[in-house]
Specification:
The complex is a heterodimer of chains A (234) and B (591).
Chain A (H helix, E strand, L loop, with lengths): L1 H19 L27 H27 L13 H24 L3 H31 L8 H32 L4 H29 L4 H11 L1
Helix pairs in contact in A: 1-2, 2-5, 2-6, 3-4, 3-6, 4-5, 5-6
Chain B lengths: L27 H6 L4 H31 L9 H37 L7 H20 L30 H29 L12 H33 L9 E2 L2 E2 L7 H34 L7 H14 L15 H13 L1 H15 L8 H24 L1 H7 L3 H31 L5 H28 L16 H34 L68
Antiparallel strand pairs in B: 1-2
The chains are: A mainly alpha (234), B mainly alpha (591).
Chain lengths: 234, 591
């Protein structure tokens, strides 16, 4: 459970930092405003959607941290046989990086009020994300053909399960990108679009980060790191 | 909204918090069924949760009939008994209490108490309810599928949860897991709303330290639930894979009916870690909203500011954080390194400190208060007593050496029913009596309410207090029929019969409550906007019940904290949060 504990510690630091800004030591019973005072709520002034995405990323992050926790606990059992990682995954990783870069490009274009750049970024981002998903499906097929079935070994089970969970999050993101593109089609103002594109780009960077961590885990790159952590804990 | 002289603040800069773009319903369907108004969604959540809660109540009667009079009722066999305890537990903890506190009270009270027009994502909020309803329907459908609902216990421990010896192995367990997955998806949608609304949509002047404790409790519980429910999600998905697709995440190598099963190498302990990483925070996900609400009930009905507001806030946050590092105290008998046992026993005992602070503060709020023994106040007092009782036995069970002999006995059943069954339900009932006038514009009948309280409170005590004794005798939980065993005296059987009779009586009292809810809706005394003379914003709405958008043309402005009761020198014994200071320059309204 060390992965999720570590994740929770990070969340606790963020929450603690935020709370430390909230004047929790004030004595509210002594603070009374008169009519002439313009009381502030101290509420977050960021758009609701941005905070909403931030909170959602914490939830999704916790989900993946739990998958990783389960993975690292289960991989210690004797029946674990690591599976060969299809080379296709490297291509898929490249495509996902491209997708993330394209959406970042789109966001920067939105800040420059460059509508063509936004459309280009969204379309390339979406197309490469779809390519990523197709690539993942092909990787599954290659593993299946090679005899690495879902239920034949826990390493296989985790591979399919974790890639599926990540893929579903990419699909959810595609819905958001689709809606943003539809806004462009309907001729929405750039000021409205900017936020949507920014949120898509943020979500994509998150998905890329998660994928890189998962890839490290699935390819065994992080095994040494996990071992070190385990020894430290013991 | 009352008494806010907006003209005087006409030059105030535009509200820092942008108004929510309200969705205006165009038809009866979008106003009452597919509504995006948090108040309607709250009522939908509450009614659905109560309906499925009634099913769980009936299940508890059936269980009690079997325990009190074993062998008398031929329609309750061992398998059905296991199904009843499983469904009773699961429904009560997740589908009733979590949904009612967060989906019901959260939706109704958060926007009103923070001075917002609605939740920040109304459409997602609506989806949240419909996914929750789907989860409830899937859960209820398990009563009708071949093999019936799962009988694995609410903890659904593998491997037994998916083995053929456990009832509901066919469809029951599959639908149970699907229902949980749906519930978590639905809850996440709602939870995002509750958190972001508190963070971003507070009205002018509503700083975090001016929030009523109800909002603090619901807010912190929602943050915890958003982080803890993924653990149940992961556990459910992985077990679904084990059951349907034949993977071995949790399933060890097994021989069943002489046949080697296809599973091998899985770790049941892994499931327990995941389950309790959710399961323990879940206790506080239910308790923190109750803590918050009861603080407001006590303060309002004792006409006194809450004692130690800051400490109450810190305690809520502290309990929320600590509750993530105590989960393995549910697993002492699963086998663990003694040092881990020591660690988890220590964290468990530490969590008693902020909890005890809260209890002391409630009692000190009552001290020399102008206590009105209204029905909400009675339930709040009932909560304190049952919670202290259940909390103290929690200290026993938190210690490894005490827990091991008491584990899986009726003592544990008595403990958790006291602390997270009866105590939160007391708050739910008190809160309904308190806020019903705001929701409907009518008071609940007082006499029926008092009858309901005394039967429920005394009855619940008579049910669960003797159960501790049964546990100390060594009577195990989850047993369909104890039979004649040397170490169990005949008096234990008599006591069991007594508990059953009381349980049926308490159940009857709930029917009186339901009658009161319906009768008062039509015949209840009109309540006016603020019948309890309370300070918080939800009582200051221009209309009762609050209209679409909650407030009139402008949002209220908050000038003070939520607990200005019995302020010396004030004209009334309460000053609403949206009432500005009378004389400029005077500081320090309340001690």
């Amino acid at each position: 459970m060390s992965a999720i504990i570590l994740f929770m510690a990070v969340i606790a630091v963020i929450v603690g930092w935020w709370l430390s800004q909230q004047r929790l030591t004030t004595k509210p019973w002594l603070e009374e405003d008169g009519i002439g005072d313009f009381p502030s709520a101290g509420a977050v002034t960021l758009p609701a959607a941005k905070i909403g995405l931030g909170v959602f990323l914490a939830v999704a992050g916790s989900l993946f941290a739990l998958f990783i926790s389960a993975y690292s606990m289960r991989m210690n059992t004797v029946d674990w046989r690591a599976l060969p990682v299809p080379r296709l995954l490297w291509f898929n990783t490249g495509v996902l990086v491209l997708s993330s870069v394209a959406l970042q490009w789109g966001y920067m274009a939105a800040r420059r009020n460059d509508m063509d750049g936004v459309v280009f970024g969204l379309l390339v981002g979406a197309a490469s994300a779809v390519t990523f998903l197709v690539g993942q499906l092909l990787a599954w097929q290659q593993l299946n053909v090679a005899g690495y079935f879902l239920a034949s070994n826990p390493a296989n089970s985790f591979f399919y399960l974790i890639t599926a969970a990540h893929g579903l999050h990419v699909m959810g993101g595609l819905v958001a990108v689709g809606r943003t593109t539809a806004k462009v089609w309907r001729g929405a103002e750039m000021t409205q679009l900017r936020l949507s594109v920014e949120l898509c780009a943020t979500y994509w960077h998150f998905l890329l980060l998660v994928w890189l961590v998962l890839l490290g885990l699935l390819t065994g790159w992080t095994d040494d790191f996990v071992d070190i952590c385990r020894q430290l804990l013991n | 909204m009352v008494d806010v002289p907006y003209d005087a603040i006409a030059d105030i800069p535009p509200a820092e918090v942008a108004e929510v773009e309200l969705y205006h319903p165009k038809s009866w369907w979008t106003q009452y069924v597919f509504s995006q108004d948090a108040k309607v969604i709250a009522i939908q959540y509450s009614l659905t949760a109560s309906a499925i809660g009634l099913v769980a109540l009936v299940l508890s009667w059936l269980m009690r009939l079997q325990l009190g009079f074993p062998g008398t009722f031929s329609f309750i066999d061992a398998n059905q008994y296991l199904q009843f305890i499983t469904m009773h537990g699961m429904i009560m903890v997740i589908y009733l209490l979590t949904a009612l506190f967060l989906g019901g009270f959260g939706n109704y009270l958060i926007p009103l108490m923070v001075g917002a027009r609605d939740m920040v994502f109304p459409y997602v909020n609506m989806l949240s309810y419909w996914v929750y309803l789907l989860a409830v329907l899937v859960l209820a459908s398990t009563f009708f599928v071949p093999g019936g609902p799962t009988g694995a216990g609410w903890t659904l421990y593998p491997p037994q949860a998916i083995l053929s010896g456990t009832p509901g192995q066919d469809w029951g367990i599959i639908l149970m897991l699907v229902s949980l997955i749906l519930f978590i998806i639905g809850f996440t949608m709602g939870g995002l709303n509750y958190v972001v609304t508190v963070l971003q949509a507070r009205t002018r002047g509503m700083t975090l330290m001016r929030l009523p404790l109800t909002v603090w409790g619901i807010f912190t519980a929602t943050v915890m639930a958003l982080l803890a429910f993924p653990a149940l999600f992961v556990a459910s998905v992985m077990m679904l894979f084990d059951r349907v697709l034949g993977t071995s995440f949790f399933m060890p190598a097994l021989v069943e009916m002489g046949q080697q099963m296809k599973y091998g190498g899985g770790s049941p302990i892994l499931f327990q870690h995941l389950f309790w990483f959710f399961g323990h925070p879940e206790v506080y996900i239910v308790a923190l909203p109750a803590f918050g609400i009861v603080s407001d009930l006590i303060s309002t009905h004792a006409r006194k500011n809450i004692f130690g507001y800051r400490m109450m806030v810190w305690a809520i946050v502290g309990i929320g954080a600590l509750s993530f590092v105590v989960w393995a105290h549910h697993m002492y008998v699963s086998g663990m390194h003694p040092k881990f046992g020591f660690f988890f026993a220590t964290t468990t005992l530490i969590i008693a400190i902020p909890t005890a602070i809260k209890v002391y503060n409630w009692v000190l709020t009552l001290w020399r208060g102008d206590i009105h023994l209204t029905v909400p106040m009675l339930f709040a007092l009932g909560f304190i007593i049952t919670f202290v009782n259940g909390g103290l036995t929690g200290l026993f069970l938190g210690n490894v050496v005490v827990d091991v002999p008491l584990s899986d006995t009726m003592f544990v059943v008595a403990h958790f029913h006291m602390v997270m069954g009866v105590a939160p339900i007391m708050v739910v009932l008190g809160a309904i009596y308190h806020w019903y006038p705001k929701v409907t514009g009518r008071m609940l009948d007082d006499w029926l309410g008092k009858f309901h309280f005394w039967v429920t409170f005394l009855g619940a005590y008579l049910i669960f207090f003797p159960m501790h004794y049964l546990g100390l005798l060594g009577i195990p939980r989850r047993y369909h029929d104890i039979g004649e065993v040397a170490f169990i005296p005949p008096s234990a059987h008599t006591l069991n019969a007594f508990i059953t009779v009381v349980a049926l009586t308490v159940g009857f009292a709930q029917m009186v409550f339901l009658f009161n809810l319906v009768w008062s809706l039509f015949k209840g005394r009109p309540s006016g906007g603020n019948p309890w003379r309370a300070t918080t914003l939800e009582w200051q709405t221009p209309q009762t019940p609050p209209g679409h958008g909650n407030w009139g043309k402008e949002l209220p402005v908050v000038y003070r904290w939520a607990y200005d009761y019995s302020v010396p020198g004030a004209a009334q014994d309460f000053i609403p949060q949206n009432q500005p200071r009378a004389t400029p320059g005077v500081q320090g309204a309340a001690p």
